[in-house]
Design brief:
Length: 734
């Protein structure tokens, strides 16, 4: 106590701890004057004693009024010291900063007031304690007491002024503290932090842009704050930094790109838009720095292409095109495998637009870096094949383009066709929904003849006969109708007169044997009318089923389309194309008379002219409208043009062997059909067979004639038939 009295008079000591502010204020003025006298006398030891007393007996006192007096007293000492205050700051400032966490809000308020007065006196010397003061102010900005918040804001403005004019501020020491605080969610703290970032960025001598990666994520995090004001402040700060990036010759794009990629997948719409906008600028500005981040950037862009917000979709598409147009090589660090991996993952997206762009990337890489892509083909091939079952036609078409690009190499071509057939076999709905579009597109992208030959080779050895039949029927329908296969149809039309056509006919024939109607269609297309007629004649009862009649109905309707115009025109020369007539009449005989197809074909055949050529075509002999079909078949048969063609081309097409091949395949189908029926019958009737047999035995016993009648019947049967009973087939016997 004696030390205290020697340093501070008793009256001053007493008033400094009084509950009345005016008394404490007057005591502080006395201390200020005392310190001025001590400074004038050069008594620095006594000044230190005054400060120690204020700290130990007042600032750290358990009584709130003492702590308030101590804070006012320390501020008064600093004011009294004036220019000499800097050497005592190590004693004065720490207890004031400690008071910011005092339980009493009034003490916290006076701490802000005291530090404010201290800062005004020492100005630049104050920077030594900046980090501690900043940390304390950060906490006070969210204080529960409005007066404390207000006092803290006043102090904050003063500290900002001091920092902006100081050349001793260390941004390197400050950034770790700022980074640590950026994850705080309190809105007042966030406003405080954004305010400091903005102020420091405005100081020319402070390079905040260089440290932007350290707090960029925190700023983006604020974009989703519930407070509109905070979102606006954060957006304003980010916009300013982005403008600086555009004008800066040196920027660390890589570290920031990692942050932007993460933020581009934010659940907050505004955050996604800002992130994708930044990525867009980075792609334009980043150059070589971003090459190793391309895969991550692409992974952020592709989902945004399908974003529900149009602005995000527009920017994402622009960025995607910009990224794809950049020309880089693997030697520059461009990771083709990583890009392919991203594209493969995005093929599983629920959004069509994203899947389409993923395929565009694979296609682009295939064109630019084919060798590297083929090295990673095993990683993406299965995914590409599964994509053929996509619900979107546009996706399927793009997948086919990618497959076609890969299939330029023979080994991959075979792999593609084999797997395609496998997928059709495993998923019948895929064949129904996508079969036509897949085959037609492949025929455009790859050579149609090559595709059909490969498919025929695979189906020729197919063990699943039902699938083979269905697949051949589908391929046959595509062959007959698709505009893309017009060249292939033209080649087949010349099967009887040129080698290329014959070879293609024989190649397709092997698998087309799985469907009688497909074989007949192929023969009509190849103008092998005699063989078509022979095939029709070879059909047996088992072949004429519902499926066959459905296919026949389709063929009859196709005969009326422009594709078979040549065939209908040949009907103008019935004498020359007798086998064509026989084939069409054969088909007519297979159709139910009440069917629409029967009426269509019959109507067409009625229009066939009832004249034929005789004497080399010099004379025309007209027949009556009721000329029998046999007359057409027998008239000048030796001069039939088709017979001449067939005879001359037998060395190319062995029709007898082809017919045997067809019958062998159809025999396998019949055996399988019988086995299926037998199995069905066995499983369905085994439980009732005994009962049926028992009822038959009972019925037989009831209808047995007497023994005399049976002997009489036998005698009658042993007699020769009477004249009246010798009737021909179909005659009624009386």
């Amino acid at each position: 106590m004696s030390d205290a009295l020697s340093a501070i008079p008793a009256a001053v000591h007493r008033n400094l701890s009084d509950k009345l502010y005016e008394k404490r204020k007057n005591a502080a003025i006395e201390i200020e004057n005392t310190v001025k006298l001590l400074i004038a006398a050069g008594d620095h030891d006594k000044i230190s004693k005054v400060i120690d007393v204020l700290i130990k007996e007042f600032a750290k006192s358990p009584q709130a009024n003492h702590r308030k007096g101590g804070l006012i007293g320390l501020a008064a000492v600093t004011v009294g010291l004036a220019t000499e205050a800097a050497q005592y700051l190590e004693q004065i400032v720490p207890p004031v900063i400690d008071s910011f966490t005092d339980q009493d809000s009034r003490v916290r308020y006076y701490a802000c007031e005291a530090l404010y007065n201290i800062a005004k006196v020492v100005r630049g010397e104050f920077i030594l304690f900046f980090n501690k003061i900043f940390d304390a102010l950060c906490k006070l900005s969210a204080d529960s007491d409005a007066n404390v918040q207000s006092a803290a804001h006043l102090l904050d403005r003063l500290v900002k002024d001091i920092v902006t004019e100081s050349d001793q501020f260390s941004i390197e020491e400050f950034i770790p503290l700022l980074k640590e605080r950026m994850n705080v969610l309190n809105p007042y703290v966030r406003q405080f932090l954004v305010g400091w970032i903005t102020v420091l960025d405005s100081v020319p001598d402070i390079d905040m842009l260089g440290f932007l990666p350290d707090f960029l994520d925190g700023l983006f995090n604020m974009l989703s704050d519930s407070s509109h004001e905070i979102r606006q402040q954060a957006d304003s700060a980010l916009s300013e930094f982005l403008q600086e990036i555009k004008n800066s010759p040196s920027v660390d794009y890589g570290r920031m790109a990692e942050i932007l990629v993460q933020r581009a997948s934010s659940s907050d719409e505004f955050t996604r838009l800002t992130a994708i906008t930044w990525i867009n600028e980075f792609v334009k500005l980043g150059g070589d720095q971003l090459v190793r981040y391309y895969a991550d950037i692409l992974g952020a862009i592709l989902p945004c292409i399908s974003d529900k917000e149009e602005k995000i979709r527009v920017v994402a598409r622009e960025t995607n095109e910009e990224l794809r147009s950049i020309h880089v090589e693997p030697s520059d660090g461009f990771d083709v495998g990583a890009i392919l991996s991203v594209a493969r993952r995005q093929l599983s997206s629920d959004h069509e637009a994203t899947r389409i762009e993923a395929l565009n990337w694979i296609s682009t890489l295939l064109n630019k870096h084919r060798t590297e892509v083929l090295c990673f083909l095993n990683d993406i091939f299965d995914t590409l094949l599964k994509a053929l079952s996509d619900s979107s036609d546009d996706v399927v078409l793009l997948v086919l383009e990618v497959h076609a690009g890969v299939a330029k190499d023979p080994q991959y071509f075979r792999h593609l066709i084999v797997f395609l057939v496998h997928n059709f076999r495993a998923d019948n709905s895929l064949l129904e929904r996508r079969g036509a579009i897949i085959v037609r597109r492949l025929c455009v992208l790859l050579d149609a003849e090559r595709v059909y030959r490969e498919l025929s080779t695979i189906l020729e050895g197919e063990d699943n006969l039902d699938f083979a039949s269905t697949m051949v029927q589908a391929l046959n329908l595509i062959l007959l109708t698709a505009p893309e296969l017009s060249k292939l149809r033209g080649l087949l039309k010349g099967s009887l007169i040129n080698r290329e056509g014959r070879e293609l006919f024989v190649a397709l024939y092997a698998s087309w044997c799985h469907s009688p109607m497909a074989i007949i269609s192929l023969c009509l297309l190849a103008q092998a009318y005699q063989h078509a007629s022979v095939v029709i004649q070879s059909l047996v009862e088992e072949d004429i089923n519902v499926k066959f009649l459905v296919q026949l109905d389709k063929l009859i309707r196709l005969l009326e389309t422009p594709i078979f115009t040549y065939l209908r025109l040949q009907l103008l020369e019935p004498g020359r194309y007798t086998w064509l007539l026989k084939t069409l009449y054969g088909l007519l005989m297979l159709l139910p008379q009440q069917s629409a197809a029967f009426k269509i074909l019959r109507t067409r055949l009625k229009t066939v002219p009832t004249y034929s050529f005789s004497g080399g075509g010099d004379q025309i002999s007209r027949a009556s409208s009721g000329v029998p079909f046999s007359q057409y078949m027998n008239h000048h048969e030796d001069d039939d043009a088709e017979d001449i063609n067939i005879t001359s081309s037998h060395q190319g097409i062995n029709f007898a062997a082809r017919l045997q091949q067809f019958e062998n395949v159809q025999s396998q189908h019949r055996v399988q059909a019988r086995n299926n029926v037998k199995y069905t019958y066995t499983t369905s009737s085994s439980s009732t067979s005994k009962e049926v047999k028992r009822s038959e035995d009972e019925e037989e016993e009831q209808h047995k004639p007497p023994p005399s009648s049976r002997s009489s019947s036998v005698a009658d049967n042993s007699r020769p038939p009477s004249r009246s009973s010798r009737k021909g087939p179909g005659q009624l016997q009386l």
